[in-house]
Amino acid sequence: DTTGSMGWILPLFLFFYFRKHKLRTAALWLALGCLNWILSLGPYLMVAGFHTYIPLPFWLVRQIPLIGSPIQAVTYLNHFNYAFFGIAAALALDDLRRRAESPAKSRGILLAACGLIFFETMITLPRPLTALETPPIYERLKSAPDGGVLTVPFGVHLRYAGNPIKRTIKPLQLIYQMTHHKPVIGGFITRAPLVT
């Protein structure tokens, strides 16, 4: 639930269709979808994985008191994109159905559109994987007496509203815990153990 992708087929279909056919009933949904898409880009512009530190509109949203600090859900905005652009696509397909000369042609257009969108969202491509290498010190900690592990620097996981840098020390210390099997100070558990 932390990632989402609109793909290319639906936005391109909407762009070319509404460029040719002006449909007033879809204008609101397109505007909401475009605004939401801009917000879902996050607080800072990233280009090909490179952080440009150029603030985007969502940076302003994160500065609002009582709303900005708890809002970590940039990625949840993608779900609204599906709704906004989906309603606009439904209106476009309905308009296309009414413009078709025969019911068979309109059914064919609908099936082709749904098939293309389904194909794009369901296709699986090889995903790049990252090699996880654990430093040798954690192998030595595995045979050490019982106790906790404190990773230094402690607590470096800067993800608050004003900081564009996302450090990765906390996720790495959880990965290293799979090697040493000791409790991690400042770690993460999904539920409390039976014996505390």
Q: Count the beta strands.
A: 2
Tertiary shape: elongated
User: Could you give the distance between the termini?
Assistant: 31 Å
Order of helices and strands: HHEEHHHHH
Task: Supply the key terms.
mainly alpha; two-stranded antiparallel ribbon; single chain; 7 helices; 5% strand; 196 residues
Helix-strand layout with pairing:
Layout: H1 9-20, H2 24-39, E1 44-47, E2 50-55, H3 57-62, H4 77-99, H5 103-122, H6 136-142, H7 169-180
Antiparallel strand pairs: 1-2
Helix pairs in contact: 1-4, 2-4, 4-5, 6-7
Report on this structure.
This protein has 196 residues and is mainly alpha-helical. It has helices spanning 9-20, 24-39, 57-62, 77-99, 103-122, 136-142, 169-180; strands at 44-47, 50-55. The chain has a two-stranded antiparallel ribbon with strand order 1-2. The radius of gyration is 24 Å and the shape is elongated. Residues 156-169 have low confidence and may be disordered.
